């Protein structure tokens, strides 16, 4: 089965290193909590809020051992008034035997407020 696995995190500043590291740690957590290997991943979509312009978050994904050939696309979130700032969101599409209700979606830092119903 192919499933979508959501995740989000925030950074405190619009700095390249912060964006790269936050993305890296988020994706490692998504993979570990869902027992996903790079070979299981179909693609990764990463979005950032309009206030994050210092770097492409995909570079953070490329810092993970074994993720060199994982297809990735970056985009900007819709600038909704009063939305969470400095936020990085991911959608990992992967092959897994997990049932949809058993997928662990990952929310770090201030992004936990986005989906408190899914935070474990």
UniProtKB/TrEMBL annotation:
SUPFAM superfamilies: YjgF-like. Keywords: Amino-acid biosynthesis, Aromatic amino acid biosynthesis, Isomerase. It holds the Pfam family CM_1. It catalyses: chorismate = prephenate. Its EC number is 5.4.99.5. The keyword Methyltransferase does not apply. GO terms for molecular function: chorismate mutase activity. Prephenate binds at residues 6, 89, 107. GO terms for biological process: amino acid biosynthetic process; aromatic amino acid family biosynthetic process; chorismate metabolic process. This is chorismate mutase. It comes from Salinibacillus xinjiangensis. The gene is aroH.
